[in-house]
Each structure stands twice: as structure tokens, then as C-alpha cells.
UniProtKB/TrEMBL annotation:
SUPFAM superfamilies named among the record's database cross-references: 2-isopropylmalate synthase LeuA, allosteric (dimerisation) domain, Aldolase
The protein, known as: 2-isopropylmalate synthase
Pathway: Amino-acid biosynthesis; L-leucine biosynthesis; L-leucine from 3-methyl-2-oxobutanoate: step 1/4
UniProt catalytic activity: 3-methyl-2-oxobutanoate + acetyl-CoA + H2O = (2S)-2-isopropylmalate + CoA + H(+)
Signal sequence segment: none
Family matches, as InterPro entries: 2-IPM_HCS-like, 2-isopropylmalate_synth_dimer, AIPM/Hcit_synth_CS, Aldolase_TIM, LeuA/HCS_post-cat, LeuA_allosteric_dom_sf, LeuA_bact_synth, PYR_CT
């Protein structure tokens, strides 16, 4: 297996993401984690950009012991001196000089001819080599540069002392076919290329940064540049974690490997996301929240039978604790059964079928069904088994300043009784309506409500204690609608009352009908 060197530029190109501005402490924290991750070189910053940047790069150079530390510089003495000042204390410093080579950049940005580009680059490399053994030269916008001029610049850089020559796809314009061919041609046409590390650095403007990086590896590059989570200028850079995993999983194609410690990937990704404030796209490969989540019934069934049916990477491999079966709209009974078992319940097939119907009804109201929701559905199922009354309809209106509740209760004989009452607030009206429907009065001794799962569509849990003739009856109800949860809790207590007393409800004056 060929070793692919990893040059991490999270702290330089990654920090070029709009809105990202890391403090020295944050940069050091990330650098130490990158070292733990096993990257070979950390581009700590662009020292000429500000005095604060020099301080950060200096501190990283002081604290990081194993990884080499690079600093970026334009092709001029002032920038090189700033870089020198910043990384001179590093164990293995590397000066990174960049100069654009493409016709567009030469004409519009640099106002230089090809000859001037060659001369400027050569004099900068030779100046840098006085102080640095390790020197990388990057041909900015290489993918839009004439191939013959690339040969000339790469050859000049090697002769002048560059130890790494990097060909970036600065604007994310390359395609895997053209980009791979460029490296193949360089290897075939530039003398001395075998004595240096040939490197690539891709941007993701067309969503092809990882594909282009892999094409470069396939065609002989020795070093890849990228960032954690793919952050960076505009649409970002190649995500290092994606390349490391692609090489790991498809060694049959690439026959190459990085030294990345795979199970440090997820902790690194989290740290970078937290400190930069750049949220990771949920469906992002390897490190996105959904990368190891399975939602649909057929997939979940496959996962439960054999994870390799739907997962090519084991989550533990990259430091994610486990795969998740997310109970959602498309889930089936196998996943629900596994979840119920995991929560410590042992339901019969019939109970599971009933729970499944309730679960499907709930998912129409709620985006995610959480563990707590399932617990509540099961608990509610147990409560309802013995019910004298169940709630069959409930509506609420606010005529004038009052709350008006209409409640319909159905008893064991499928008789439904409907009552409309006004009250001092919805809960007062509701409880009066229930009392009138069953022709019994209770004193509401306690009423508590709490949200029992997360989000605006969380399930509300209501607890009530009712008093009838000094005896207390407790009830609990759950629903995404808190008025309904309150009705269910009240009815649960009422049902207890009837069961305990062995009583039949007294005929009420409410409107009665059969269903
Ligand atoms: C492809 C990349 O990602 S390269 C890295 C990009 N990162 C950054 O630019 C972040 C740090 N940059 C900065 O803080 C500032 O741009 C500084 C301090 C470096 C320079 O600021 P200023 O001196 O005000 O110049 P400004 O950024 O406006 O313009 C860039 C100048 O550098 C020149 N330049 C651009 N690239 C290079 C290069 N590789 N080598 C030499 N000169 C260059 C431009 O032609 C322009 O020169 P001009 O003033 O003669 O027209
Ligand atoms: C400095 C170079 C490598 C760069 O960031 C680019 O070309 O995108």
C-alpha cells in the first residue's frame, strides 16, 4: 500500500470560511487534535495576514510535537519573513509558497507574464530555501493552467529546491477525468518529479473535491490537502475524512492508505464544528448526524438481520458510538419491536401490533418519535386496557372571553355521551364537561403538566389527583395536544374510581348516541 501524506489546512483554508475566526486557544486545541488524528502536516495559518495570526502559528509550532507545521506565504520576502518568524520554533517547519499560474490569474490578478511568474516563484523559493529544508510550492489555479506551462513551473520549482509541489484545483473547476490526466502527464513529462512529493488541493465548487482528490491519488500524487468537515473558502475543500475512508474501503482500487487514526475522525469533526461554528450538514458523508441512521422499515429490517446489508462502514470505526434506527414515518414492525425490547418491554405480537398502529398515528403528528414517546405509548396502552371510558372526541372554542369545550366519551358498551361546557379556562371547562358526562363530581386536588420529549411537537404528560368523598384517584395522560393529554389523565383517574368502586356510571343528562 502506498502511503498518502495528509496535509491538513483546516486552520488556514478552513478558517477562510466566511464568518470563521478562531482564537489562538481554539487553534491550538484543534491543532493538537489534528495531531492525534494522525495528519502528517498542519497548515497553521497565513502569518503575513495579521500580527494575531503570527502569535497563533507560533503557539501551535510550540505545542505540536509530532506533526510538521506549515505556514502559507505569497511569493515575496515580506510574507516569507512573517512565516519564518511564526514557525521557526516548530519541530518540523515547512514553508508553503503560493503563486498563481493560470492565464486568468496572470492577466487579471497578478498582471504578470509567464516569465515574470517563473522568475517571481523561483526567487521566492530560493529565498525560502535559505531557511527551510521543507518547502512546498503551490501553483495556484493549476487546473486552469496550460499543461506546458505547468511542466515548466513544476520543473523550475523542483530545481529551485521545493520538496513538495502542489497542484490545486483552486476554483473547483476540474473533473476527475481531466484532473487525473493532468497528474499522469506531469509524472510522465517533468524530470525529477519522482524526487519530490506531488500534492493536490481541491475545492468543492462543483461538489467534486473528493472525487478529484481520489483521481489525483489514482494518478500518482503522494500528498492530499484538505480540511475536516470539508470547510474552507466558498464551497470548501476536500474533506479529509472522506478521502481517508474512501482509501480504507476501496483499497482494491487505490492501493493506498493514509496514517489517519480512523476512530479519531468523529471527535475531530465535532470539535472543529463546535469551535468554528460551522454546522455539519446532517447527511454529510462519514460525520453527518444521519451518516449512520436508518429510517425506513426495509432498511431497518436489513440492519437488524445483518448490518452489512445497508452499512458499508461500521460507525465505531470512525468513532461514532453506534448506528441508529430512527423511528419515523417509514419504519416497520421489526424496528419497533427492537426499540421496544431495547427499552425493556416485552410485548406480545398483538400488543406490538396495537402499538404499531398508535406509533403510525403519532408519526403523522410528530416529526420524530423518540424513545420517551414510545415509552409513553406503551404505558398509555396498559392504562387503556381496563378503561370504563375512552375519549372519542374533543373540540375547543373561545366564544367571547370564555373557553368552551365539547367532549365525547365512549363507554365499554360503545355508548357515546357528548357534553358542551364553558369554564374559566380550557382545563376548567374540560374537567366540568367530563364530570357532567358521567354525572359525578370530583375535586381536582392536583394537576401537573410536563413536556416529556423534545421539540415543539413534544408529547405532553399530565398527572391529576381527583378526590371523591375523601378518596384519591390518580391519572396520567399523554398527547402531543396538552388539552387531550389533560382529558386522558382525568379519564384515567375516573376509570380508576369506577373500577375500584365496581360502580356503573349514573345516567347523565348529556346528549347520548351509539357508535
Ligand atoms: C488560493 C488561496 O487561498 S491563497 C490564500 C488566501 N488567503 C488570504 O488571502 C488570507 C490572508 N490575506 C490577507 O490578510 C491579505 O490579503 C494580505 C495581508 C495577505 C495582503 O493584503 P494587501 O496587501 O492589502 O493586498 P490584497 O489582499 O488586497 O491584494 C493582494 C495583493 O497580493 C498580490 N498577490 C496575490 N497573490 C500573490 C502571490 N501568490 N504572490 C505575490 N503576490 C500576490 C495581488 O496581486 C495583490 O497585489 P497588488 O496590491 O499589487 O495588486
Ligand atoms: C494556497 C493554495 C494551495 C490554495 O489554497 C488554493 O489554491 O486553493
Amino acid at each position: 500500500m502506498k502511503k498518502i501524506h495528509v496535509f491538513d489546512t483546516t486552520l488556514r483554508d478552513g478558517e477562510q470560511s466566511p464568518g470563521v475566526n478562531l482564537t489562538t486557544d481554539e487553534k491550538v486545541k484543534i491543532a493538537l487534535q489534528l495531531e492525534k488524528l494522525g495528519v502528517d502536516r498542519i497548515e497553521a495559518g497565513f502569518p503575513a495576514s495579521s500580527p494575531g495570526e503570527i502569535i497563533s502559528v507560533k503557539e501551535i509550532s510550540r505545542q505540536v510535537k509530532n506533526a510538521s507545521i506549515a505556514a502559507l506565504s505569497r511569493a515575496n520576502k515580506k510574507d516569507i519573513e512573517a512565516a519564518r518568524e511564526a514557525i521557526k520554533g516548530a519541530a518540523t517547519p515547512c514553508l508553503h509558497i503560493v503563486l498563481a499560474t493560470s492565464p486568468i490569474h496572470r492577466k487579471y490578478k497578478l498582471n504578470m507574464t509567464k516569465e515574470q511568474v517563473l522568475e517571481t516563484a523561483e526567487s521566492a523559493i530560493r529565498y525560502g530555501k535559505k531557511y527551510f529544508d521543507n518547502l512546498e510550492f503551490s501553483l495556484e489555479d493549476a487546473s486552469r493552467t496550460e499543461i506546458d506551462f505547468i511542466y515548466e513551473v513544476v520543473h523550475m520549482a523542483i530545481k529551485s529546491g521545493a520538496t513538495v509541489v502542489n497542484l490545486p484545483d483552486t476554483v473547483g473547476y476540474a473533473s476527475p477525468e481531466t484532473f487525473g490526466t493532468m497528474f499522469k502527464k506531469i509524472k510522465e513529462n517533468v524530470p525529477g518529479v519522482e524526487n519530490i512529493l506531488l500534492s493536490t488541493h481541491c475545492h468543492n465548487d462543483l461538489g467534486m473535491a473528493t472525487a478529484n482528490t481520489l483521481a489525483a491519488i489514482y494518478n500518482g500524487v503522494d500528498q492530499i490537502e484538505g480540511t475536516i468537515n470539508g470547510i474552507g473558502e466558498r464551497a470548501g475543500n476536500t474533506a479529509i475524512e472522506e478521502v481517508a475512508l474512501a482509501l480504507e474501503m476501496r483499497s482494491d482500487i487505490y492501493q493506498a492508505k493514509t496514517d489517519i487514526v480512523l476512530n479519531e475522525i468523529y471527535p475531530t469533526s465535532r470539535m472543529v464544528s463546535k469551535l468554528t461554528g460551522m454546522m455539519v450538514q446532517r447527511n454529510k458523508a462519514i460525520v453527518g448526524d444521519h451518516a449512520f441512521s436508518h429510517e425506513s422499515g426495509i432498511h431497518q429490517d436489513g440492519m437488524l438481520k445483518e448490518p452489512t446489508t445497508y452499512e458499508i462502514i461500521r460507525p465505531e470505526m470512525v468513532g461514532v458510538s453506534s448506528s441508529t434506527l430512527v423511528l419515523g414515518k417509514h419504519s416497520g414492525r421489526h424496528a419497533l419491536k427492537a426499540k421496544v425490547r431495547h427499552l425493556g418491554y416485552n410485548l406480545s405480537q398483538q400488543e406490538l401490533n396495537e402499538l404499531f398502529q398508535k406509533f403510525k398515528a403519532l408519526i403523522d403528528k410528530k416529526r420524530y418519535v423518540l424513545d420517551e414517546d414510545i415509552r409513553l405509548l406503551i404505558d398509555e396502552q396498559y392504562v387503556n386496557e381496563e378503561s370504563m371510558f375512552t375519549l372519542s372526541d374533543l373540540s375547543i372554542a373561545y366564544p367571547g372571553n370564555e373557553s368552551e369545550i365539547t367532549v365525547a366519551l365512549t363507554d365499554r358498551h360503545q355508548q357515546t355521551v357528548q357534553t358542551t361546557t364553558r369554564g374559566n379556562g380550557a382545563i376548567d371547562a374540560l374537567f366540568q364537561a367530563i364530570d357532567q358526562s358521567i354525572n359525578t363530581e370530583f375535586i381536582l386536588e392536583d394537576y401537573k403538566i410536563q413536556s416529556n420529549s423534545a421539540g415543539k411537537d413534544a408529547i405532553g404528560e399530565v398527572h391529576v389527583i381527583l378526590d371523591n368523598d375523601g378518596k384519591k384517584y390518580r391519572g396520567r395522560g399523554f398527547d402531543t395536544d396538552i388539552i387531550k393529554a389533560s382529558a386522558k389523565a382525568y379519564l384515567a383517574a375516573v376509570n380508576r374510581f369506577y373500577e375500584e368502586q365496581g360502580k356503573q356510571p349514573i345516567e347523565s343528562n348529556a346528549y347520548k348516541f351509539s357508535i
